[in-house]
Design a protein that fits this description.
The protein has 1003 residues and is α+β, with helices and mostly antiparallel strands. It has nine helices and 75 strands.
């Protein structure tokens, strides 16, 4: 079977070339377009670093990076010729003259973080800026700055801020800059470098070099004067040596010496000098790359292999010990890594497919060619008698014989100088060897592309699908403590027990998985790594499944190893990871947790490296405690003792976007009622690679549980109901999932006005008021109807009293008078009967008129005077009592209803006088004026106690009279005394009388 080629996907400038890959080598698909691998030899001073570059296509406003500083919140500030950047390790925030009024230029030359946590920004042509509490303040000539080209910034041990410019040295006093040079202490200077040594002396360099201490200045000469010795950088290292970088090179002065000497190996302008925490001195030059002084040995690193440019402008070591280098062609980050690449010599293609640790400590590496690593040195190796054959794997059996698996030529067994060949001709099932294993009985098992062969000195026995093998393409072999042979294939797992294949729960469960790695732990647990399905453990009849949900870095597993400390080393498509096997055992009992996984990937320089695992062995553990794995770049070694990051990650919510518009992510975030979509952007301030960081988030009062941990840094929500929420973000590293760091932001989703509590409460109150109002209206209507009925009943009672009852009483009186005549009847008899008949007709007419008034409202008017006169005459004639009628004033017309009620009232008063008062004389007075009409009925009868009668009695006529008058809006007055007669006064206003106004009864 031909072997597919296995190549890495490489970056060459902006071009990428891809070669076909076999199933055993896979690309780590992270940030390939952004990163390029280090090509350091193992003895290079930068071999312990991985690197990453940033240029304009990666977010820089311009390529030239000149300054770095890190504030207390761990943000990295980057000065470029295109503005000032704030960097959290993943995203840039730009401050420039377009968005920050304090910036008059974009060219940032130097940066300083002071002890009060303020950030000082020196601009090339833009003066001096201070950033504090989120506000930039610009210093100008008003504060004493006379030159806008700021080249150097320093805070001394006393807290003073020193500023060097192209024309002068300044010190900050309060908010004012005082000039120090051009004085008795120092001459006029151009200052490009300022440093303070351990003695507290201030070193000032530029056009000249001075040391200032205790108010005294001493000048140091650096050979020839003039621009070649213009100072660009000053440094004192931990051993007390003073280093000075000039336009023409590097000079240094040992501690205790009095003069500087040239360092001949360094040429060109030395732009910066830095000593990092490991004691290495970094020397950045203009045009000549990077020089490294390591214990007096100077080595050079140049572009394009590592550096973006050979013009280096600045270097900074952050709190995480990352090294940041600013160049004319971009920015470079160097991060310490436990991963080391052993490149294979004399090989254009460094593909490594398998690695094998021999019993003497040598490591065999099968790549395009075969290599043996002896005492840390890799050398190409060829077996006599094997030529033109690609070797896939190496294995040494217990007898010392070396087995060599090949691609297409079967297997070879070397015993001493004798080489024995086994192929299909000699009984091998297939000539493409993938794995080798020796069992306890001495048999050598050979896994191939078409099945498994068992070699014994007596012969070869083959196992294929015809014998019960689950699939023909085999990948891995293992003998367990019971002596059973486990065979991993590209479609399931087979178990060979005493020469026969058997099925059980685990083989049935994994019948569709690609089993690429097998391992048995000290407790008898069987571990199975799959190509895409994660990791399985079979122990005590229970199968446990582990995936990224339980903390694994990937569900693809190429190789599985366990060291003496119980750490499982796993290679996969995204790198190499390490996890405690005992922790995974604990997860089998408590599956809700997550495993602590240490991933070695992009941050360790593995971004363009393919891990390999299709053939075995695909990894070994050395006696030095290193894990070795094959890759497309050679052999990768990982030191298990490398310390991890222990500090908690600062989590930030740095941006909120509501319907496409930025909302300040500080304090309480208030969203308008029409907000349909809101985005929360979050992250961590971590300047090394953030590939190991996972995030989860939750919106309290909306989400029921946390989101699943992921690399995502944005959360989306749509159509949030009105209310108050807390958006919470938690971050952790795969290597320490228990160390959660959380932050939150309060969100207020405002409702529409018609959904606000006050509006709803108002609506409820209004509804309640309307219900009450309707109820009161209905109740008022019922009461009004009742009053109307009562009023009408009273009116009927009055009419009956004043018409029918009075008329009947009159007729009855006449008939009694007639009856009392007896035999003395004469003319009087006829008159009485005539009067009775006349009274009866009048009564009937009045009753008919009352009925007519019930059905129709009279609109006619009449004069009451003649009607009142006629009524007085009839009553006088009827009761034979003299009644005198008198009228005064000018009468005016009254409406018919008013006339009727006034007449009925006056008649009732007359009837009461003549019937009950026994008067000798009755007077009826009608008086009219412009305002009202008044009728008074007065008699000289026996009278009565009006006060006592008002509290009791059954004189309904008085009540009726009063009701009629008050109904007309008039005034009714009754005066009476026993023995002195009675007076009834009726007063009706002209306005009410003329309009016939009748007030409603009050309930």
């Amino acid at each position: 079977m031909p072997r597919p080629c296995c190549r890495a996907l490489m970056l060459n400038g902006s071009r990428r070339s891809a070669f076909s890959s076999s199933a055993k080598c896979f690309l780590i698909p992270l940030l390939v377009a952004l990163l390029s691998p280090l090509a350091f030899a193992s003895d290079s001073p930068l071999a312990a670093f991985s690197e990453r570059k940033w240029q304009m296509q990666d977010g820089l406003p311009e390529q030239v990076v000149q300054a770095f500083a890190q504030t207390a919140d761990r943000y990295l500030w980057i000065g470029t010729t295109g503005g000032l950047l704030r960097f959290d390790g993943e995203r840039f925030v730009l401050f420039d003259r377009d968005n920050t009024p304090a910036f008059h230029e974009n060219n940032v030359f130097c940066l300083l973080v002071a002890s009060d946590k303020s950030l000082w920004v020196g601009m090339e042509g833009g003066g001096l800026l201070r950033y504090r509490d989120g506000v930039f303040h610009a210093f100008s000539s008003a504060e004493g700055l006379t030159n806008n080209f700021v080249r150097a910034l320093l805070e001394d041990r006393y807290g003073k801020i020193w500023i060097g410019t192209d024309d002068g040295l300044f010190v900050l006093n309060g908010d004012r800059l005082d000039r120090v040079d051009n004085s008795d202490l120092l001459p006029l200077l151009a200052v490009h470098a300022i440093a303070q040594d351990r003695d507290g002396s201030l070193w000032i360099g530029g056009s000249q070099l001075f040391r200032v201490k205790a108010g005294m200045a001493r000048e140091y000469k650096l050979g020839a004067q003039g621009s070649p010795n213009r100072i660009k950088s000053i440094l004192q290292t931990h051993d007390g040596t003073m280093w000075v970088g000039t336009v023409s090179g590097l000079q240094k002065m040992a501690r205790g010496a009095t003069s500087f000497t040239s360092v001949p190996l360094v040429t060109g302008t030395v732009r910066f000098l830095r000593e990092t925490s490991d004691g290495m001195v970094w020397i950045g030059t203009i045009g000549h790359g990077l020089e490294l002084d390591q214990n007096g040995r100077i080595s050079r690193i140049t572009a394009p292999d590592v550096l973006p440019s050979n013009t280096l402008l600045n270097l900074y070591e952050d709190q995480e010990n990352n090294i940041w280098i600013g160049t004319q062609g971009g920015m470079l980050r160097l991060s310490r890594t436990p991963v080391r690449t052993i490149t294979l010599p004399d090989s254009d293609d460094s593909d490594a497919e398998t690695v094998y640790l021999d019993r003497n400590g040598d490591v065999w590496v099968a790549a395009v060619n075969l290599f043996r690593v002896h005492n840390g040195k890799a050398a190409r190796y060829e077996f006599a008698g094997i030529s033109g054959v690609r070797i896939r794997n190496i294995f040494r059996d217990r007898d010392g014989a070396l087995w060599i698996g090949t691609e297409g030529k079967g297997a070879y067994r070397q015993v001493g100088s004798t080489l024995i060949h086994y192929s299909t001709k000699e009984g091998l099932v297939n000539n493409f060897v993938r794995a080798l294993l020796q069992s306890r009985d001495g048999s050598v098992w050979i896994a191939t592309d078409e099945g498994v062969s068992q070699w014994k000195p007596a012969g070869i026995r083959n196992y294929t699908t015809k014998n019960g093998l689950c699939y023909f393409s085999t990948r891995s072999l293992l003998e367990d403590r019971e002596g059973d042979i486990w065979i991993g294939t590209d479609r399931g797992l087979s178990r060979l027990h005493q020469g026969k294949f058997v099925k059980d729960a685990v083989t049935d469960a994994l019948e569709d998985e690609k089993i690429w790695a097998l391992h048995e732990d000290e407790a008898g647990g069987l571990w199975m790594g799959t190509r895409t399905g994660g990791l399985y453990r079979w122990r005590d009849g229970k199968l446990t499944h582990y995936t990224v949900a339980q903390g694994l870095s990937s569900n693809g597993i190429f190789e599985l190893l366990e060291d003496s400390r119980g750490t499982l080393w796993i290679s996969g498509p995204n790198g190499i990871s390490a996890v405690s096997r005992r922790q995974l055992d604990s997860l089998a009992e408590k599956p809700s947790g997550r495993a602590a996984v240490t991933l070695y990937g992009v941050s360790d320089g593995l971004e363009t490296i393919q891990m390999c695992g299709g053939e075995k062995p695909a990894g070994v553990l050395t006696r030095q405690g290193e894990a070795w794995f094959p890759s497309s770049k050679g052999v990768l070694t990982v030191s298990a003792d490398h310390p991890g990051m222990k500090n908690p990650l600062p989590v930030v919510i740095d941006q909120v976007i509501a319907d496409g518009l930025d909302v300040p992510a500080q304090g309480n975030v208030s969203l308008g009622p029409d907000t349909a979509k809101v985005e929360f952007h979050f992250g961590v301030v971590l300047l090394r690679s953030q590939e190991r960081v996972r995030f989860r988030y939750m919106l309290d009062a909306f989400d029921k549980e946390w989101s699943k941990p992921s690399l995502g840094r944005v959360a989306y929500y749509t159509n949030l109901p009105p209310g108050r929420y807390h958006f919470r973000v938690a971050a952790f590293e795969l290597s320490n999932p228990e160390q959660l760091v959380e932050t939150s932001l309060e969100i207020i989703q405002k409702p529409h006005f018609y959904r606000t509590p006050w509006f709803i409460a108002g609506c409820v109150l209004l509804a309640g008021f309307l219900v009450w109002a309707v109820y009161e209206l209905r109740l008022t209507q019922v009461r009004a109807r009742f009053q109307a009925v009562l009023k009408e009943r009273n009116r009927l009672a009055r009419e009956m009293h004043d018409t029918l009852i009075q008329g009947c009483a009159s007729v009855s009186a006449l008939l009694e008078a007639h009856s009392s005549l007896g035999h003395q009847r004469g003319n009087s008899d006829g008159q009485l009967l005539d009067y009775a008949r006349e009274q009866l007709r009048a009564t009937i007419d009045e009753a008919r008129q009352a009925v007519w008034d019930l059905r129709q409202s009279a609109e006619t008017t009449s004069d009451i005077s003649p009607l009142l006169r006629k009524m007085a005459e009839r009553v006088s004639h009827e009761f034979a009592v003299p009644i005198e009628y008198r009228a005064s004033g000018k009468p005016f017309a009254l409406d018919q209803a008013t006339v009727h009620d006034v007449l009925m009232t006056a008649r009732e008063a007359l009837y009461n006088s003549v019937r009950h008062g026994q008067p000798s004389r009755v007077t009826v007075d009608l008086s009219c004026n412009e305002e009202h009409v008044a009728i008074e009925v007065r008699d000289d009868g026996r009278g009565f106690d009006a006060k006592a009668d008002s509290n009791g009695g059954k004189h309904y006529g008085v009540i009726g009279m009063r009701e009629r008058v008050e109904r007309l809006g008039g005034k009714f007055t009754l005066r009476s005394q026993v023995g002195r007669g009675t007076s009834v006064l009726i007063e009706i206003g002209k306005k009410g009388a003329a309009t016939g106004q009748m007030p409603e009864a009050v309930p």
